[in-house]
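Hi support team,

I submitted a single chain yesterday and got back a structure, but I'm not sure I'm reading the token output correctly. Could someone confirm the output below corresponds to the sequence I sent? I've pasted both exactly as they appear in my results page.

Thanks,
R.
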Amino acid sequence: MKLTEENVRYVAGLANLTLTEQEIHQYTEDLSGILTHMEKLNELDTANVEPMTQVLFAGEENSSLREDIEHTPLANEVALANAPVSGAGYFKVPKVIER
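Hi R., thanks for writing in. Yes, this is the structure output for that exact sequence:
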């Protein structure tokens, strides 16, 4: 799949990034190369390949998943105790989006 510089500019705008013309050109080439490689991988027949890992089954002895234990949640007052500014039960933060 070939990306255009317009595609890169659009995504950069969504991410609020300011890119130079050289960076736009470089990202267009790099991302197009990645997508081309992914297209090649999608051509592989994986119908008879068993999954290598699955997190939705009961773990074994060496499973890295911890047991889910119920506990009392953090109280709102405790969570806000060290907040520099709070009000009405919420953290107050400065506005960061200027668009």
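A quick pointer for reading it: The CA atoms of residues 5 and 28 lie 6 Å apart. Let us know if anything else looks off.

Best,
Support desk
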